[in-house]
Amino acid sequence: MSQNFWTNFLHLFQKKRKHQTIDAKLLNILGFSPKNTKLFIEALTPRSAQLKSNTGYAFNYERLEFLGDAMLGAVIADYLYINAPHEREGYLTKMRSKIVSRRNLNKIGTELGLIRLIDDDIKKNITLGANISGDMFESLVGAIYEDQGFNITKDFIYRTVITPYVDLNSLENRISSYKSLILEWAQKNKIALSFTTLEEDNAENIRIFASALSLNGKEVSKGRGTSKKKAEEKAAKRAYFNFQRKINQ
Question: Between 152 and which of 143, 148, 165, 241 could a Cys-Cys bridge form, CB atoms 3.0 to 4.6 Å apart?
């Protein structure tokens, strides 16, 4: 799509939103009225829209996403430090990774209905990525911090992440990555592990990858997915259940 189209579109978009109040659904999620509504419009604008501000800078949630990621990490780290007083750094790091995993944040963003808050005119002209809900949740956290400061941001993270989803006992037993788990097991036991991952030919216009996992040169499982990462994770998950008793030992 031409740059002129997006330039004209942004002009109309900004004109339309200039005097518009924040969506009632977003206000319900936030629990407060923003001081700077532009921050929240920016937080709900995907990078795939390729919009620029009047001064020529990218106008999307990317910078706020970076900030929100840092704030989530800080608040979760503080929570773990207080609530797991006798655990070592490795445990704390592992628990934080599970809480702020892409899968977890995507789930939270989806349940909050963040995709529905994207401007309708923008949504018609872009393709939404698989992680859009989680990315937008992080950008929303970043916007809250810039608009309201640390304490309100902390309260929001507790309300949307920690209180409804964090249970340390269940998190300890949750496997966040079967690929990482089985790689670690293979390394500890000096087992040669390899993935053979190739793109499949198919009649549909969809990229599908097939991955075969081998241990000491012997194929033990296969997995398919829309990316190499997903295919290998599925192959690793099947291998884990095939060797679960040995791995858990």
Answer: 148
